[in-house]
Amino acid sequence: MGRKPFIAGNWKMHKTVAEAVELAQGLRRSLAGITEMELAVCPTATALHAVSEALKGSNVGVGAQNMYWEEQGAFTGELSPLMVKDLCRYVIIGHSERRAYFGETDETVNRKIKAALAHGLSPIVCIGESLEQNRAGETVDFVGEQIRGAFADISAEDARKLTLAYEPIWAIGTGLTATPEEADRIIRTAIRDVLASLYGAATAEAIRMQYGGSVKPHNMAAFIVMPEIDGALVGGASLKVDSFTAIVRNALEALP
Ligand code: PEP
After folding, report:
1. Measuring from atom 2 of ligand 1, which residue has the nearest CA?
2. Adjacent-strand bridge partners of 122
3. Reduced to 3 states, what is the DSSP secondary structure of residue 218?
């Protein structure tokens, strides 16, 4: 079976509960009836419950932006997999902002992935290189290492449950994007080929890959038509009903 396209919005640290519910209700209406593509939004923790209620029974899923790996305990400020699972199905793990500002490493990302899978959550795992690494020609090696770290001790059966988001850090929130051809090449050589070496070709081909980094309505189609790219993780343009809807609709139109 082919990989079902998947577009998710990362609302980052934006929106009060009321604002988040308003956005969710708008998306529920504007995206109603779309079944060819999996859709999700990831609000802040404070809005997770209300947004989950607002989207209950709709075709738009909900995810958390982060999660700790322990089920409970003295971990002030953290959310456990049990708490996340109570409210939603997806969880973003290892976003570059978490890696850069909150000390996340390939090892903590791996622990979080294992905890998410153990609790039946669907992780969206972010990887991607910095501008310096890109300029130094280190992208394939660096992203390949991130993949090996993220997937350490994860079975092939579990690996298939992950969605990967290739997000070049220099393209996030900057208005710059990788070219679709370059993103496709990196996903093939740094991600899917590494997964094939770990799990074999069939498993590698089954894992969905999103592109992330300044995806907007005008550039979505060019990414989704690339053979390796199955959707997008969208930051800034997911904060408005119109722009997120246009991204989804433009992707749908471009699909074969
Ligand atoms: C992101 O937050 O993962 C992201 C890709 O942000 P933006 O679309 O704003 O670049």
Report:
1. 235
2. 90
3. coil
What does the angle CA 110 – CA 111 – CA 116 come to, to the nearest 5 degrees? Answer: 95
Nearest alpha carbon, ligand 1 atom 6: 235
Provide the pLDDT confidence category of residue 32 given band limits of 50, 70 and 90: very high
Which residues are bridge partners to 165 per DSSP? 126, 210
Q: What is Dmax (Cα atoms) for the chain?
A: 50
Q: How many angstroms does the Cα of residue 232 sit away from the middle of ligand 1?
A: 9
Query: How many C-beta atoms surround the C-beta of residue 212 within 10 A?
Result: 28
Q: How far is the CA of 65 from the centre of ligand 1 (A)?
A: 12
Triad 152, 98, 58: Cα angle to 5°: 90
How far apart, in whole angstroms, are the C-alpha atoms of residue 119 and residue 33? Answer: 29
- pLDDT score, position 1: 58
Catalytic residue among 38, 104, 129, 167: 167
- Contact partners, residue 55, CB within 8 Å, separation at least 6: 24, 27, 28, 41, 61, 62
- Structural domains in the chain, CATH included, are 6-254 (3.20.20.70)
Is the distance from the beta carbon of residue 123 to the nearest atom of ligand 1 less than 6 Å? Answer: no
- Is 38 assigned a catalytic role? no
2 pLDDT band (50/70/90 cuts)? confident
Which pTM value belongs to this model?
Answer: 0.97
The protein residue whose alpha carbon is closest to atom 3 in ligand 1 is 235
C-beta separation of 208 from 231 below 8 A: yes
Which tokens hold the place of 195? 């997964």
